[in-house]
Amino acid sequence: MEMMAEARAEVRELGKRATPARLTTLLFLRSQARPASHAEVSRALEPLGFDKTTVFRNLNDLCEWGLAQKSELGDHVWRFEPSQSGSHRSKHPHFVCVDCGTVTCMDQIQLTRGSLETSRDIGKVTEILLRGHCNDCN
Ligand SMILES: [Zn+2]
Ligand SMILES: [Zn+2]
Hints:
Layout: H1 2-13, H2 20-31, E1 36-37, H3 38-45, H4 52-64, E2 68-72, E3 78-82, E4 94-97, E5 103-105, E6 129-132
Parallel strand pairs: 4-6
Antiparallel strand pairs: 1-3, 2-3, 4-5
Helix pairs in contact: 1-2, 2-4, 3-4
Bound molecules: zinc ion (ZN) (2 copies).
The site of one zinc ion has 5 residues, from loops.
C-alpha cells in the first residue's frame, strides 16, 4: 500500500514513531475532499479500534509537525486537513455555507504576504473566511 508507506516515511523523517493510529489518521485526512472535525474523524476511525482520545491526540500531533493544519471557522469546531506533501500549505481561505455548514477549501485563491500586512492593526491572520450559500442550498 503505497500511500501508507509514504506516510510512514514522512512521519519517520520527522523523527517520530509511525504508529498505526498516526498513519491511519493522516491517511484519513488525505482521503477527504474537505476539512474534517474531530467528531468526523473519530466516527470513521473508531470502528478500526482507535478511540476519540487517541484520534484527538494524533490530530494535534500531526498539526504540530506540519503534516496537517487546523482551522476554526466561527462555529467553535476545529477542522483538520492535511498539509500538502508534508510541507506547510500556504494558508488558504475557506468557504462556509451559512445554511448547511459545509466547508470548502479555496486553494485557488492566494493571498500575498503584502495583502496580509496592509494594515498595521492586523497582527497575525489565523483564518480567512468567506460565507455564503453553497450550490445545494442556493
Ligand atoms: Zn449549503
Ligand atoms: Zn482547507
